[in-house]
């Protein structure tokens, strides 16, 4: 076998592209759904590796490494004694190109041998280092480990760094004798180093075929824990070993048992074990990676994550041993399908083990609601690519959840099993999963023969939007017209081409005369058409519910009559018992957000909250706090806001009083619900809450050394700054000014945020603005001023006071920020961009007209503010009278009841 040797200097050699003719071969693809860091170049398929032989020798003293990689090439490529004309790195690409003198022959194999060297990183990219304190010796210990996702293997050694190229690795790694190396596979043998006295070389068993991004190792002094008795109970599972920094053995035993439980549950789900002898789970104190490094057979995660002992976290990492490592996406454009499937199945595994206790009712609602808010904006993601990647994965996960329900759990389960079985050691594209589910569904007759899961899934995944289904019942004919359109919450609703957006939508139907929330089979599909009619509905005095339990990721709007029947039913004890928790939460959430979007009367939305005086489930309460926040901020400047705060107090006070004082221990949901209720009651001016906060705050005021100790819980500080005296607020201001450098600076940041964002009295805000802007107090940085501007946008008292301060001191401020365009732009945006009424529009327009040509870099900002305020003012003109009328009626009735 012929050998080509080429020495490549420096860490700039990151991946390898070979060509058999002059020049390089490129292939561009659409990366719109892939990772933000993935380049737009693909390696040609002329040459593909058969396997790697890799030797790595780190230098822990100099933080460098050297090594040699031997890449064996598959037929039909031949490398004889070929002359290499030159080697070049592609400009601005992590690709190295070899230019050969002649075209190689076909028919045999070849070998490429490349020495390499590089530097060890401090950030979590490729091969990096870190340190921790040994709990036993109290000494600082260093470690080296890898993070290869998504394309960081090229930072460590020359390779074909694409997920679709899966080959075995034969690896040996040098290490100091006092350290341990863990790799994807078990240790085979250890030999003395030929030249370095204190070093040995570990040789590891050859890996199964795998992608470069699942390659990984760690060199450390962490200690191993293994409960042999537990491992023996699972002979078909790989040996699971936990490595840690001397964590208590009883804790490690529980962690080890939970890991085995999770592994066995996943194995049962897939009906197959991964082809590995061992899985090392390594807990590293202070690990700097954003997420665990889930290499095949080697999981490296933060010690804090391990100590949570979370079934969900363990499932999310272990499931990647099947989906991601053994079965791998062909290219990063399908990574969102891999992540979504793994995340959904991990949630199912966790629920299967503990009934969903860990979720505390937040799955899928929290995930779904955040998706509703993001995708209903005029400009989703604010064009932030990284956020878009997460949104695509979340949305795909919810589509997978929808298919699990609508196809039936048995069909979905068998389809996934067949998908895994068909792709052992292979790669897949998204359509492979959808096609397998289609095949299984057609076999089980859970999907109409003319439908395709590929078509259904793509209608959801390829759009940065979600639909809303409007239901208009005809009570005389017992039928209904169902129409789909783009769900838009943020005004104006002028999204381009929204009329062309259509989805495949499963319509699950529940009717009052035959309520059955366990039935998830679609009554009908809206098969990418604008509207359909359904018939055989119940009598006119009975409601219907569509998309119960949030089976599909879309809100539903009904005619006013159906909404009112739902409201009345939920106010009965039997109604709240018959309609399950997630559906009650959905109905409440849909009504409020549709009203906010302008698609439903606020009177109807408020009616949907009437049953909350009887509701005590925290899952149903969660959306209530969201709409109190959203609506409260929107109407903050209007006269209606005081009435809204009275409504909030009436709504929340009974709940807060019933929850009572905090007990230890108690269920997490009670603590969470009590905290939220207190926060919003304090914000609304609930006297018992304010008095409690002032009492706690007084302890701090009387402290002998207030700059070095703060005994006040954070939850009490904002109510005092909002409703307390100017003296109490001034005390907090002095603590910021005199904040010691020795204390944690995040505490100062929190204090400054509350000083600016909480007060309702203009004199407090004016004092802060005068100190920081006009007096230019040296204790406040430019970042502090940015933070103050941002916090003032949170309420009308803040941004109105900021606007008035700007108007009154225009000349001085303009001079102060003459060379600070970022601060000036931030000021104009914060002072003018949040108004939502005609009065606010008139104020901003007057400022604009009084200072023509003086806004400089912020000219476009104030012009945008005027456009937005005009839109919001129309919303206020339309909705505030409706809200005020409902609140007047509600508060009047409530007062009458209290008097009786």
UniProtKB/TrEMBL annotation:
Domain ERAP1-like C-terminal: 543-870
Pfam family, one: ERAP1_C
Keyword Membrane: yes
Cofactor(s) in the UniProt record: Zn(2+)
Location relative to the cell: Cell membrane
Superkingdom as given in the UniProt entry: Eukaryota
GO molecular function, one term: metallopeptidase activity
Main location: membrane
Domain Aminopeptidase N-like N-terminal: 90-213
Keywords of the record: Glycoprotein, GPI-anchor, Hydrolase, Lipoprotein, Membrane, Metal-binding, Metalloprotease, Protease, Signal, Zinc
Residue stretches making up the Peptidase M1 membrane alanine aminopeptidase domain: 264-442
Entry GO terms, CC: cytoplasm; extracellular space; plasma membrane; side of membrane
Gene3D superfamilies per record: 1.25.50.20, 2.60.40.1910, Neutral Protease Domain 2 (1.10.390.10), tricorn interacting facor f3 domain (2.60.40.1730)
Signal peptide: 1-23
Topology relative to the membrane: Lipid-anchor; GPI-anchor
Alphabetical GO biological process terms: proteolysis
Keyword check for Ligase: no
Membership in a protein family: Belongs to the peptidase M1 family.
Protein name: Aminopeptidase
UniProt organism field: Drosophila willistoni (Fruit fly)
């Amino acid at each position: 076998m012929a050998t080509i040797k080429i020495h490549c200097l420096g860490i700039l050699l990151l991946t390898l592209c070979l060509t058999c003719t002059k020049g390089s071969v490129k292939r561009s693809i659409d990366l719109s759904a892939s990772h933000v860091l993935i380049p737009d170049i693909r390696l040609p398929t002329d040459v593909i590796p058969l396997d790697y032989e890799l030797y790595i020798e780190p230098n822990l003293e100099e933080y460098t490494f050297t090594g040699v990689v031997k890449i064996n090439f598959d037929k039909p490529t031949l490398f004889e004694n070929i002359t290499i004309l030159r080697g070049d790195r592609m400009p601005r690409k992590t690709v190295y190109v070899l230019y050969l003198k002649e075209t190689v022959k076909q028919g045999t194999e070849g070998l490429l041998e490349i020495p390499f060297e590089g530097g060890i990183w401090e950030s979590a990219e490729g091969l990096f280092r870190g340190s921790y304190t040994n709990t036993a010796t109290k000494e600082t210990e260093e470690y080296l480990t890898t993070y290869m996702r998504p394309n960081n293997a090229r930072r460590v050694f020359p390779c074909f760094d694409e997920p679709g190229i899966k080959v075995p690795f034969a690896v040996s790694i040098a290490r100091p004798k006092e350290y341990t190396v863990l790799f994807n596979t078990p240790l085979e043998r250890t030999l003395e180093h030929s030249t370095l006295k204190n070093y040995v070389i570990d040789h590891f068993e050859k890996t199964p075929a795998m992608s470069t991004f699942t390659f990984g190792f760690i060199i450390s002094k962490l200690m191993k824990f293994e409960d042999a008795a537990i491992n023996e109970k699972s002979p078909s599972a790989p040996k699971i070993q936990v490595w840690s920094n001397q964590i208590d053995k009883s804790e490690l035993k529980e962690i080890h048992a939970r890991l085995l439980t999770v592994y066995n549950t996943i194995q049962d789900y897939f009906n197959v074990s991964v082809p590995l002898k061992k899985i090392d789970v390594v807990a590293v104190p202070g690990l700097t990676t954003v997420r665990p490094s889930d290499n095949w057979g080697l999981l490296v995660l933060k010690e804090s994550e391990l100590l949570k002992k979370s079934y969900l976290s363990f499932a999310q990492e272990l499931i990647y041993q099947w989906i991601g490592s053994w079965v791998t996406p062909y290219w990063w454009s399908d990574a969102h399908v891999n992540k979504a499937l793994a995340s959904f199945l991990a949630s199912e595994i966790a629920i299967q083990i503990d009934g969903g206790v860990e979720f505390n009712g937040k799955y899928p609602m929290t995930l779904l609601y955040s998706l509703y808010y993001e995708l209903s904006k005029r400009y989703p993601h604010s064009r932030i690519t990284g956020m878009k990647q997460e949104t695509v994965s979340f949305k795909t996960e919810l589509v997978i959840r929808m298919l699990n329900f609508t196809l039936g759990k048995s069909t979905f389960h068998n389809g996934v099993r067949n998908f895994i079985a068909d792709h052992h050691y292979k790669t897949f594209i998204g359509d492979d999963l959808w096609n397998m589910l289609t095949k299984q569904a057609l076999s089980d007759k859970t999907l109409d023969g003319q439908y395709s899961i590929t078509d259904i899934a793509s209608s959801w995944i390829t759009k940065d939007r979600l639909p809303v289904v409007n239901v208009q019942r005809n009570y005389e004919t017992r039928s209904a017209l169902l129409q789909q359109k783009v769900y838009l919450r943020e005004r104006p609703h002028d999204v381009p081409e929204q009329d062309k957006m259509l989805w495949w939508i499963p319509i699950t139907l529940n009717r009052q005369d035959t309520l059955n929330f366990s039935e998830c089979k679609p009554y009908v599909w809206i098969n990418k058409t604008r509207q359909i009619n359904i018939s055989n509905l119940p009598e006119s005095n009975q409601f219907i519910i569509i998309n119960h339990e949030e089976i599909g990721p879309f809100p539903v709007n009904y005619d006013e009559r159906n909404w009112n029947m739902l409201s009345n039913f939920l106010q009965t004890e039997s109604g709240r018992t018959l309609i399950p928790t997630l559906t009650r939460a959905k109905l409440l959430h849909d009504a409020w957000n549709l009203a906010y979007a302008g698609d439903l009367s606020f009177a109807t939305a408020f009616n949907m909250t009437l049953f909350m005086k009887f509701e005590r489930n925290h899952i149903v309460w969660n959306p209530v706090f969201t709409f109190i926040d959203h609506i409260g901020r929107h109407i903050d400047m209007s006269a209606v806001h005081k009435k809204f705060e009275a409504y909030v107090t009436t709504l929340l006070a009974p709940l807060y009083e019933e929850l009572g004082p905090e007990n230890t221990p108690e269920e997490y949901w009670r603590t969470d619900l009590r905290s939220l209720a207190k926060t919003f009651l304090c914000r609304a001016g609930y006297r018992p809450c304010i008095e409690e906060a002032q009492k706690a705050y007084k302890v701090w005021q009387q402290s002998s050394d207030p700059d070095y100790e703060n005994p006040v819980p954070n939850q009490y500080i904002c109510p005092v700054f909002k409703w307390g005296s100017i003296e109490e607020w001034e005390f907090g201001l002095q603590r910021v000014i005199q904040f010691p450098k020795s204390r944690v600076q995040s505490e100062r940041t929190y204090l400054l945020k509350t000083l600016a964002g909480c007060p309702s009295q203009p004199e407090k805000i004016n004092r802060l603005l005068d100190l920081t802007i006009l007096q230019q107090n040296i204790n406040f940085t430019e970042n502090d001023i940015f933070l103050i501007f941002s916090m003032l946008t949170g309420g009308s008292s803040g941004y109105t006071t900021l606007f008035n301060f700007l108007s009154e001191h225009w000349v001085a401020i303009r001079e102060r920020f003459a060379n600070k365009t970022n601060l000036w732009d931030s000021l104009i945006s914060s002072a003018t961009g949040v108004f939502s009424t005609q009065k606010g529009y008139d104020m901003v327009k007057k400022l604009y007209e009084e200072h023509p040509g003086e806004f400089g870099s912020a000219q476009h900002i104030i012009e945008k503010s005027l456009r937005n305020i005009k839109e919001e003012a129309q919303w206020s003109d339309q909705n505030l009278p409706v809200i005020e009328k409902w609140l007047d009626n509600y508060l009047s009735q409530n007062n009458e009841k209290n008097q009786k």
